[in-house]
Design a protein that fits this description.
The protein has 742 residues and is an alpha+beta fold. It has 34 helices and 26 strands. The protein has a three-stranded antiparallel beta sheet. A hairpin with a 2-residue loop joins strand 20 and strand 21. The longest helix is centred in the first third of the chain and has 44 residues. The N and C termini lie far apart (133 Å).
């Protein structure tokens, strides 16, 4: 016992002597540093300031060396908090480092404290070196204490441990080279050590989706924390960081930095699941409103076309001018492959989308959401854009093909070496529309219209220069004033050019007209079976529309509009156009017109139609046309009954009934009233006046709102009452505010 006590006293004495010796060395070294700093700074700062700077430097060195000795002696339980606190016995230095931690520049701090920029850097560097030395001697102790053995320390934990020194601690840890410490904005803390793949973690955050809902957000954060083995306390920091990238709208999180090109699909997904109609003024106004509702401060291009072009880049054609998101396409891979194989095995160089749609119509309509040729075009282009060449109406098996539908039709007619009918062309180019066929033929000078619906290639005509000169002379000699009809010219040729007609098998004025147009089309104008002098506007643009429909017994109104768009012809009043062609055509449904010869009409038939219509009037003498929804009492006329057909027949054939328009004069809507011709109703105003008088005599109207509801029920008005009811005094109020119908 005595021996142990003596040994302990000797050890203590030895340690005391060692500490005293170390303290003496520190004082000597501090004095040396003080002398050197003083000598170096007197010329620049003067005696007093240089002396203070020397004292500060000596004190810093003494504190640093004492701390090192304390650590070396094994007192690692002393935390870095104590070391940092001891280090700042000079308050100004603590303030300086705190300013640096908060982002102030060396220059600004120097100005604030009356120091040079270099001196501020020296002060900061001293403390950073001290921090590094502590970590170098105690890396494991630091990780175990600060990071709780997880390799992650949050800013909240640092703040809790280091209080007013938190910012300085974070600043030093960001700058340290003693251990690998990486600050993460996403986790609001440090990731420490070599095992964590920080780059992969950052990349995973860059790949966050543009949109999230609440449940997806939780799943996403959980998956990231699990993937990188992050502690539970990192979850909320990561979640808050991710949320800072998003704006929340109606339960959906949308990235703040989302580009317009990424915004468009989100809006289409939410509001246009079945596709959006592009290049449509009304639809683009709605689209802009939807973008504003979802993204508020997003600035869209002023030009709608620029928006449409960007939408097309990320969507698939699904209708005429209509586009849908790719993930809305619903087609089985097996059926898509079947269509692909059909294309490859076809003996045609070009295939119409309409042919492909007709070939697979049943499968497409029953098993996919592809309901038209345009949608099929879009789906094929989306899947095989690198394999085939896609043009407006046709697909080319050879991606580098120079053919088009116009040249393909010409080659087909040439290959037959005879007159070819329109039905043959439709059979070869299955699904081709009249508009495409008409455009291909009318713009190809080598295709001659032989008869109605028949065509011949010009290479089979037997024509020489002498023939051409004689034909031109005959046309010029028989042209009265400015023009001559094809019938007249044919009569002359039958008299004077029998051989020419015979060798070319010309037996009608239509064939003659087509041949002359091919021969001397550069010298005269040809249109609507009229040959006129150059410079005379025959046919005019309006007559081109007449020429277009004249080849057909029935035509689609929508295709007529397509043709007018192609030719740059406006049809401002289609009702007037229908009236103009009513001597030959009837509108037989919403989108079709047919020649009168297809309708079986007799005086007895008209009488039966009039009687069936009068039944709907219930004694009033008039009925709104769209209220007639049952045609069981109407006679068979060879066409299916509908309100469009009924309107056309009454306008053209009836003497006992007549049609009065009201509201917007839109041929697509049934804003029309059928009235008995002898009831004295000549205008829409007459009918409304009579309706209101009759009703008010039975039960007086209480107010204008009641009048509006009554006329709406009768389908005689749209949303509001016509102004003329008030302007002409039909609706008035007395001095007591009662409604009067005058």
């Amino acid at each position: 016992m005595m021996k142990n006590k003596e040994e302990g006293e000797r050890t203590s004495q030895k340690n005391h002597e060692e500490e005293a010796r170390h303290e003496r060395e520190i004082r000597r070294e501090s004095a040396k540093i003080q002398r050197d700093v003083y000598i170096n700074n007197v010329p620049e700062f003067g005696h007093d300031k240089a002396l203070k700077m020397a004292q500060d430097a000596a004190n810093e060195y003494a504190l640093e060396e004492n701390a090192k000795a304390y650590i070396v002696r094994g007192n690692s339980s002393n935390t870095l908090m104590i070391k940092l606190a001891k280090a700042f016995k000079i308050d100004k230095h603590k303030e300086i480092l705190n300013s640096r931690a908060k982002g102030s520049t060396l220059e600004k701090i120097g100005i604030d404290y009356g120091l040079t920029r270099e001196r501020v850097r020296q002060i900061e560097s001293k403390y950073l070196n001290s921090f590094d030395k502590y970590l170098k001697y105690n890396p494991d102790d630091f990780l175990n204490t600060i990071c709780k053995q997880t390799g992650y320390v949050s800013f909240d934990h640092i703040k809790e441990s280091y209080e007013d020194l938190s910012d300085i601690f974070v600043h030093c840890l960001k700058k340290t080279k003693a251990i690998k410490a990486r600050w993460s904005d996403a986790l609001n803390g440090f990731l420490i050590g070599d095992k964590f793949d920080y780059q992969q973690f950052e990349d995973s955050l860059k790949e966050l989706p543009d949109t999230l809902n609440s449940s997806e957000l939780e799943v996403l954060i959980t998956s990231i924390t699990n993937k990188f083995n992050l502690p539970d306390e990192a979850f909320n920091s990561l979640k808050n960081y991710v949320l800072s990238w998003y704006n929340s709208q109606a339960g959906i999180f949308l990235r703040k930095t989302i580009q317009n090109t990424n915004i468009y699909p989100i809006v289409i997904e939410k509001y246009y699941p079945d596709g959006i109609k592009l290049f449509d003024d009304f639809e683009m106004k709605r689209f802009r409103r939807y973008v504003s509702e979802l993204f508020r401060d997003v600035i869209l291009p002023n030009d709608d076309r620029a928006i449409c072009v960007r939408i097309i880049d990320n969507t698939v054609l699904c209708g005429r001018g209509k586009y849908i998101l790719p993930d809305r396409i619903n087609i089985q891979p097996e059926l898509l492959q079947k269509i692909h194989d059909y294309i490859l095995m076809s003996d045609k160089e070009i295939i119409l989308y309409s042919e492909l749609f007709e070939q697979f119509r049943n499968d497409l309509l029953e098993n996919t959401n592809i309901t038209n040729k345009h949608f099929l075009h879009g789906v094929l282009k989306y899947n095989y854009t690198e394999e085939f060449l896609f043009r407006r109406d046709v697909l080319h098996r050879d991606k580098y093909s120079k053919l088009n539908i116009r040249t393909a039709i010409e080659e087909f007619i040439r290959g037959k070496e005879r007159v070819v009918s329109k039905n043959e062309l439709r059979e070869e180019f299955r699904g081709i529309t009249d508009i495409v066929l008409h455009m291909a033929i009318s713009t190809n000078t080598n295709i001659i219209r032989w008869e109605s619906g028949q065509y011949l290639h010009s290479s089979f005509l037997l024509i020489n220069q002498a023939d051409k000169e004689r034909c031109m002379a005959i046309v010029e000699q028989n042209m009265l004033d400015t023009a001559v009809s094809a019938q007249k010219i044919f009569e002359v040729f039958c008299d004077k050019e029998v051989d020419f007609l015979s060798k070319n098998n010309i037996y009608s004025y239509l064939s003659m007209f087509g041949v002359l147009k091919f021969m001397i089309g550069d010298e005269f104008n040809f249109g609507r079976s009229i040959i006129s002098k150059k410079g005379i506007e025959i046919p005019n643009k309006h007559q081109l529309l007449i020429d277009f429909i004249s080849e057909y017994e029935t035509f689609k109104i929508s295709e007529l509009f397509d043709y007018s768009d192609e030719m740059g012809i406006q049809i401002p009043n289609f009702e007037a156009f229908l009236d103009e062609i009513s001597d030959e055509y009837l509108q037989i449904d919403r989108d079709s017109c047919a020649k009168k010869s297809l309708v079986n009409i007799s005086s007895d038939t008209i009488s039966r139609i009039e009687n069936a219509t009068i039944r709907y009037m219930h004694g009033k003498g008039y009925v709104v046309l769209k209220k007639i929804d049952d045609f069981i009492n109407y006679p068979e006329i060879g066409l299916s009954w509908n309100v469009f057909l009924l309107k056309s027949i009454i306008k053209e054939y009836s003497t006992g009934l007549k049609v009065i328009d009201f509201g917007a004069k839109d041929w697509r809507k049934m804003s029309r009233i059928i009235v008995e011709a002898d009831r004295g109703f000549d205008t829409y105003e007459d009918i409304l006046h009579h309706e209101l008088q009759t009703e008010s005599e039975a039960i007086p109207f209480k107010d204008v709102n009641e009048i509006t509801k009554h006329l709406k029920r009768q389908e005689l008005i749209g949303k509001t009452l016509p102004e003329f009811l008030f302007e002409k005094g039909i609706i008035r109020t007395d001095e007591n505010g009662n409604i009067l119908i005058c």
